[in-house]
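A.,

Following up on our hallway conversation. Structure tokens first:
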């Protein structure tokens, strides 16, 4: 039988000696617990990280609301670093100060360390923000929120999704916790629409025996949309006729309705019934009064005037209760609202106007007194 003979060379002996030495050293280190005394650097992941922008439009200036959870506590000179788009640095940090940091939870960003709790100072570069823990302070691990506001950070001018990174470091600058989130920078969406204008103005008649603007004298005649017929007038007896005005509109500025006459009530002979009161065409609403009936002063023989129930005229509730004016030789406002109206709600979309007339025994006879009233309704779109 053949036998193998192994001859150990000096080189092989040296290698075996080295391996034996390493194994012996390892056994000694594990036996003495020395590995527990040796420092190791570990980077953990931040959790629940988000960054919410107040404006995500291209090149817009925006607030950044950060929310994140740290794993490790921080003490003096440790940092929290916010890096905006680390791959391209297209975000621009403006003149950001401690007073621009709000909505803080677990953090207290200050312009200078002052001995308060959880204090950090802030420094910035073109595209990063660093918060440094003040001496003597300790930032516990856990949820953190803060907002860089007052529109200090400018978005990129290119539409894309961008990395937003938060990391914490120890006082030697070594990363402890880190995580990325993303924000999308997109063009604003322009929404357009059109709404057709609406403006419907109607005049309708009022039946007899209806109260008008609180006057004790109710309507004495039934009117229509195109006629107010007082028929035969008798001295000392006031007659009242009325019409309903309705406006439906979507005009943002609302509308105004005025009334104007073409002439005094005039007969074929040229005699007229003058404007209230006694031909003075009173512009300030006053309580109704009978014509003076002064012989030789024909404008005191009879008169007529107008009142409105609308309490929200441009000048306020000028007609009050049962007050009349006579100045309708020029347009007189009798209905007004400063916004859209529905054509039916009192003082907004609908009102009544009343016309009151009274003569003295001196009023000239005539069977054909007439004039024309014109309403002008003007919307403000």
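Then the amino acids I'd put at each of the 381 positions:
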């Amino acid at each position: 039988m053949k036998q193998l003979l192994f001859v150990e060379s000096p080189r092989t002996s040296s290698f075996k000696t080295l391996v034996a030495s390493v194994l012996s050293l390892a056994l000694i280190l594990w036996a003495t617990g020395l590995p527990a005394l040796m420092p190791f650097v570990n980077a953990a992941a931040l959790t629940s990280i988000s960054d919410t922008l107040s404006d995500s439009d291209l090149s817009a200036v925006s607030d950044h609301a950060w929310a994140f959870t740290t794993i490790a506590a921080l003490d003096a000179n440790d940092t929290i670093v916010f890096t905006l788009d680390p791959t391209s640095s297209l975000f621009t940090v403006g003149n950001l100060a401690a007073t621009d940091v709000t909505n803080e939870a677990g953090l207290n960003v200050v312009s200078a360390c002052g001995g308060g709790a959880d204090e950090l100072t802030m420094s910035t570069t073109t595209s990063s923000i660093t918060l440094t823990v003040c001496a003597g302070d300790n930032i516990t691990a856990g949820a953190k929120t803060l907002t860089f506001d007052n529109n200090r950070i400018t978005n990129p001018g290119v539409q894309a999704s961008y990395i937003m990174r938060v990391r914490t470091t120890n006082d030697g600058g070594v990363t402890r916790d880190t995580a990325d989130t993303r924000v999308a920078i997109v063009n604003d969406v322009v929404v357009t629409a059109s709404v057709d204008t609406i403006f419907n103005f109607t005049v309708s008649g009022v039946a007899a025996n209806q109260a008008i603007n609180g006057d004790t004298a109710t309507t004495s005649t039934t009117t229509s949309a195109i006629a107010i017929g007082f028929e035969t007038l008798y001295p000392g007896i006031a007659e009242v006729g009325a019409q309903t005005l309705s406006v439906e509109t979507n005009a943002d500025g609302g509308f105004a309705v005025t009334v104007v006459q073409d002439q005094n009530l005039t007969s074929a002979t040229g005699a007229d019934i003058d404007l209230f009161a006694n031909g003075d065409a009173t512009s300030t609403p006053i309580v109704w009064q009978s014509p003076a009936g002064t012989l030789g002063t024909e404008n005191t023989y009879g008169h007529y005037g107008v009142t409105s129930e609308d309490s929200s005229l441009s000048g306020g509730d000028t007609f009050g209760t049962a007050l009349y004016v006579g100045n309708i030789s020029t347009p007189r406002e009798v209905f007004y609202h400063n916004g859209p109206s529905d054509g039916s709600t009192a003082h907004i979309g609908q009102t009544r106007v009343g016309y009151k007339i009274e003569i003295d025994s001196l009023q000239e006879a005539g069977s054909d007194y007439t004039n024309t009233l014109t309403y002008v309704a003007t919307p403000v779109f």
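Residues 1-44 have pLDDT under 50 and may be disordered. Curious whether your intuition agrees with the design.

B.
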